[in-house]
Specification:
The protein is α+β, with helices and mostly antiparallel strands and 361 residues long. The chain has two domains: 3-292, Beta Polymerase, domain 2; 321-357, no CATH class. It is built from eight helices and seven strands; from the N terminus they run αβββααββββααααα. It has helices at 3-15, 80-89, 94-101, 158-166, 176-211, 215-247, 255-320, 336-357, and strands spanning 38-44, 49-54, 69-75, 108-111, 116-126, 131-141, 145-150. It is rod-shaped and about 120 Å long.
Length: 361
């Protein structure tokens, strides 16, 4: 069974947990996890900053109606009770909660009037395994708050946290919609880093194809092609998500943020173009590999054919004098044996010279 079939089988098996349940039923669908959920709150405006980790989800509730911008980050969606408590207090729709804990969602955006719900894929590059990994990131944009749900601890938002802490740029002077833009922008920028790593791998494979293609090279090409398919599925729908955010008439998104969303949209288009370029390159490299292997086989066959061709007349001469008939005048010659060897040598040299003039060698 191929890798793609295995992944599809796992997805179907996980989704089978929800068969027969009514819409909006909050059931975790994803990798089995254990451990506590980590919650971090960042509350700020242009003159105020507060950051703290909380252990109880109820500690997030007072920030709902504060005039400052509040970012609530939740690492771990396997604890359905935590997600439901957050959803109940912030009036999140059951279908949105269902999508949060269903970690196989396609990137999308839903407007629930009082808040906007966004799902996208946050990607990482595993240096040791030389492959791309992903987790689902769910964002909820409210009037003055943003809630992010992540599958695992660790993300690509450290630079944003540092900008908020040190009051760099305009993030502390803008609203919650700008924070959502910054988070999406960080995710998209990380796509470029992953593509850079993949581009380096492609360059190495190109050198191998020219010098010494091997079955391992073919396997690497297939792995990279699967990564390109995986990246395309993660990034392509995001283009429509950002486009809808930019064009959406919502009181939660200020007009001043539209220009930044257009910038992220342009970056997304660049990522998609790079992915398509890499896919075409890998398809071409597969053809080059097959051609290289075929050319190497042709070279080997050519050498073997030339050797066999040279030895055909020599074998004829040797076979002729190996018949040992009684009446063969050459058998009695004193210089017969060395003469035949010289004659065979001359035949070989003449044939090699002829092959070189014909550029067969």
């Amino acid at each position: 069974m191929g890798v793609g079939c295995i992944i599809i089988s796992r997805v179907i098996k996980r989704r089978s947990k929800k068969v027969g349940l009514p819409p909006g039923t909050v059931v975790y669908v994803g990798e089995k996890k254990s451990g506590e959920v980590k919650i971090r709150i960042i509350d700020y405006n242009d003159t105020h900053f507060e950051e703290k980790d909380v252990k109880e989800v109820e500690e997030c509730f007072p920030f709902k109606d504060k005039p400052t911008v509040t970012w609530i980050n939740i690492d771990g969606v396997h604890r359905v009770d935590v997600v439901e408590k957050i959803g109940k207090h912030f009036d999140l729709h059951p279908l949105a909660l269902e999508d949060i804990v269903n970690t196989g969602q396609r990137p999308k955006m839903e407007d629930f009037l009082d808040y906007i719900f966004i799902v996208l894929r946050m990607l990482y590059y595993d240096e040791k395994a030389s492959k791309t990994k992903a987790e689902q990131l769910s964002l909820v944009l409210g009037p003055s708050w943003v809630i992010t749900f992540q599958e695992n601890e660790g993300d690509v938002f450290d630079s944003i946290r540092e900008r908020v802490r040190s009051d760099k740029g305009r993030i502390r002077k803008m609203g919650a919609d700008y924070l959502v833009y910054a988070l999406i922008d960080a995710v998209v920028d990380n796509y470029f880093m992953i593509l850079e790593k993949i581009g380096e791998n492609i360059e190495e494979i190109e050198d191998e194809l020219v010098t010494n293609p091997s079955p391992e090279t073919l396997q690497t090409i297939h792995n990279l092609k699967r990564q390109m398919i995986f990246l395309r599925k993660s990034v392509w729908p995001l283009r429509e998500v950002i486009s809808r955010l930019e064009r959406w008439e919502s009181q939660l998104i200020n007009k001043s943020t539209d220009i930044y969303l257009r910038d992220v949209y342009d970056h997304t288009i660049q990522v998609i173009d790079a992915i398509e370029t890499f896919r075409d390159m890998l398809s071409g490299m597969l053809d080059i590999y097959l051609s290289s292997v075929s050319n190497r086989m042709n070279e080997v066959m050519k050498v073997l054919t030339i050797i066999a061709t040279i030895f055909i007349p020599l074998t004829l001469v040797a076979g002729l004098y190996g018949m040992n008939f009684k009446y063969m005048p050459e058998l009695e010659w004193h210089w017969g044996y060395p003469s035949v060897l010289v004659f065979m040598f001359i035949i070989g040299v003449v044939m090699v010279v002829y092959f070189r003039r014909k550029r067969w060698l």
